[in-house]
């Protein structure tokens, strides 16, 4: 094989030596090949620049150990140096991590002596944290109490919330040395868990560690973010007897409205998981804090589907005491202390149910059940009202006037036990208005700045009322009510009146409607909307209605109102805009007809004016507003159809003969224009069809020519290949002849040399013979 390669190389070198032009071509081709390979390899290399080494995420003066290289192994060493550790996992590019950095720094400066604060860069590709942890979002906060953990923080990344949660991890148990401390601990509205452990026999009883782990377990499960359940510990038997605790290592769950419970150690294992599960299954709460998770969730929907909810938006500081709003909720649920008197006449009898009379707001009827029958005498007693009828049961009804006393200020016990005296029960929720302002604005906070969002001098007992906003939401009936604050009453009195009005079967509360005007007021005047500027001309032709202007506009008895219902996300509504504009232009001279539209997605409307789908068109004739007509759903929304619809149901067009004639003439002219456009469209369609056929024929011709050229090119290529093959054969034959010619020349030279040598030898022999003859003679 090597011999063949050498022979081929020798032949190539001989050929290049005889033909220098081939040598130059080979050199040029080699250079081009090298350049192409080099360019291709350079494009295939990784051109992404190496990541810059990470730097400190926290400032140098922050009391936080910043492991910006992701040294996860250092975390365990730092955790062992403190009783409570605060681990902050971050990504340096994450905006949420950057925002939380300032909040964590504030907390660290306050609690640096009690907590070890550590920050770990979990995004650095060469760090151990990135390789060992699998986080799907940043930042992540873990807290460790000694060896217990991790306890993940799931609240908002705001300094007071983080500090409050950290303090609860630092002190998961509240020490109750006296009965006064125990009473103060149990009088708060949150559920209280008390553990009785005597430290006489040993410095740490066996069950105490389990009880401590139970308190931490409630934080770890993430269900007790705002401290709904508090854990206390009693070491004195005298103090424990105040809640009937006599045995050591007993866990007591205090409940306000039902019987308090003691953990059944004979039925359940005394473990932290069992105690935590038992507490969450049996604890009571009257006020629930709602905290947004920061992502899409159905937290609010899940709570509102349970029934009517009273939402109190207020500024919240987790480090301060509970709001006075909790006392109202406690009295609302305190059924055993409810007084049965004449203050609420429609609740005084257990066998009567109040029915409001539609004709009058101040009258009510009571339907009562009497325990009497054919064989039973009439009894003065009664039972609870039943929902089913029986032929052996007699009912009686009485009607009387009820004073509208629910709208007046009453004493504090006016709502005591109301939870058990009405079918319209409420759930109480508190939200931080700073974190949930968009929701408060959607419920009408912007439009109620002077009444519902309290911005005045606070009165005693009202707490921080300057930014409070109260609303009752009934998701089942899709209504909500907003508290209209009385400046002469305190917030507590206003809340009680608001709750009583909602609970009353003949309530004076009105459904609150939120429109675009309210949102613009809450937006702070951030500049004009670009869409408003683009449609200025359209606005002059079409009246844009909002919640505040809706009823007064459509109920104008001097005008016919054609109302177009639409939403900004409806594609069909956008398509019909040009039809509505053309209609408004035709009716522009008629001052008795108004073309209006309303965005039902941004404006709440009274139920009687709502539609079941968009787009929808309604006509409200003048002097006959109660006989509004809906545009037929099976009829296409076109300009001629809209004109026929208006002329058929509008009195103004029928009475105005001159205007009607002009409008009819314009309508006929428009019909002729439409017909002309239709004929032009048909001619254009025919021309387009002819052009399409010609274009298709041209494409076929081009394809045929391309195929013919391709065949000719293939034939020429084949002929050129054959010519090249013949030339190559001639070149090989010429090379062979040249080689043979060289060999012949060599042979001829050898023969010539041999002949010359022979002749020289003969000449030398003859000379030698002559010399010998000469000597002989």
From TrEMBL:
Residues 509-538, 755-777 are annotated as: Disordered. Residues 49-175 form the Thioredoxin domain. The keyword Coiled coil applies. Keywords: Coiled coil. Residues 513-522 have a biased composition (Basic and acidic residues). Residues 759-770 have a biased composition (Acidic residues). InterPro entries: Thioredoxin-like_sf, Thioredoxin_dom-contain_11, Thioredoxin_domain, TXNDC11_thioredoxin. Signal peptide: none annotated. Residues 706-740 form a coiled coil. PANTHER family: THIOREDOXIN DOMAIN-CONTAINING PROTEIN 11 (PTHR46497). This is Thioredoxin domain containing 11. The lineage of its organism: Eukaryota, Metazoa, Chordata, Craniata, Vertebrata.
